[in-house]
Amino acid sequence: MPSHRQMEAFYWTATLGTLNACSEKLCTTQSAVIKRIRQLEQTLDVRLFTRTGRHNVLTDDGHAVLRMVEPLLQQHDALLQRFRAPRAPAQRLAIGVTEITAITWLSLMIEQLKACYPGIQLKIVIGMRAELQQMLLNNTIQLSIQQRPPAHPLLHCVDLRELRLMWVGGPEMNNTRSHCLRDLAEMPIIRQNHESALSQVYDDWLHPHKADTAVFTINSLIATASLVSAGQGISCLPEEYFAPMVASGRLVRLLTRKQQPRLMYSALFRKHDEHTAFYREVAHIARAVCSFAPTQWVSAA
């Protein structure tokens, strides 16, 4: 009967591509990984890999075994999650968040985590989606709260809440005219850089049209709102958070013929981690407090 360690060594070698990456993931030696894979091959009487340079490439039998092993490992994780109480790993947790979370509900989540796990030491990193996901894969952070990325074989994703966006302009703009995609594409757009999910949203939403002019590339929502309010261009901003600026007349919401963009915010953490149950519990706490409305409006003027 294949052991959990044998299946785990095979799965991570197949997923990460090299014995070195697998051994680092499992905090063991390459020789231990090789031994476990050979034991699995002997038990199943198949060859799982062929060697190509530094990489291990799955054989046809290896692909078939991988499809069967992955759900078994997931069931193992589910068993631990169901019957083993979640606990903070060594009372330390590094969490990555994007700006909109940092300026809205991050402080509330921190309060809830400290109430549920007294003594926990939190490290908070604020960054862009692509940067946070890479930090998560490198184990620099253990959990990332960000715009939901495409499915990744190494990551769990727990959806939290939808973030509604709105196109806005300065006070001089007409708030009764309904704009088509070409109208907006021809206006100067203040946008974030390519690592931001918002930047991709602009491009996807405007397709097949392309923005003619990007006046500024800024990674601050507050600075973006200030520049839009000053008449420097238009932008697409979180609806709930910037509603007070629209209500006060400092921003004008632009009506569009196409439904305005939306993003799903999610909590991401690594699969098959020994603390998966704890990270899932943190994700549930995040879901309970997630809100993109301003807790205390700070003037963007």
Automatic annotation (TrEMBL):
Q: Which family does it belong to?
A: Belongs to the LysR transcriptional regulatory family.
Entry protein name:
DNA-binding transcriptional LysR family regulator
Q: Does the keyword Transcription regulation apply?
A: yes
Q: Which UniProt keywords apply?
A: DNA-binding, Transcription, Transcription regulation
| Keyword hit for Transcription | yes
CDD domains assigned to the protein according to its UniProt record, in alphabetical order: PBP2_LTTR_substrate (cd05466)
Query: Signal peptide span per the entry?
Result: none
Database matches in Pfam families: HTH_1, LysR_substrate
**Entry's InterPro entries?**
LysR_HTH_N, LysR_subst-bd, WH-like_DNA-bd_sf, WH_DNA-bd_sf
Domain HTH lysR-type, first and last residues per copy? 1-59
Q: Which PROSITE patterns match?
A: HTH_LYSR
Q: Name one GO molecular function term.
A: DNA-binding transcription factor activity
Q: Which SUPFAM superfamilies match?
A: Periplasmic binding protein-like II, Winged helix' DNA-binding domain
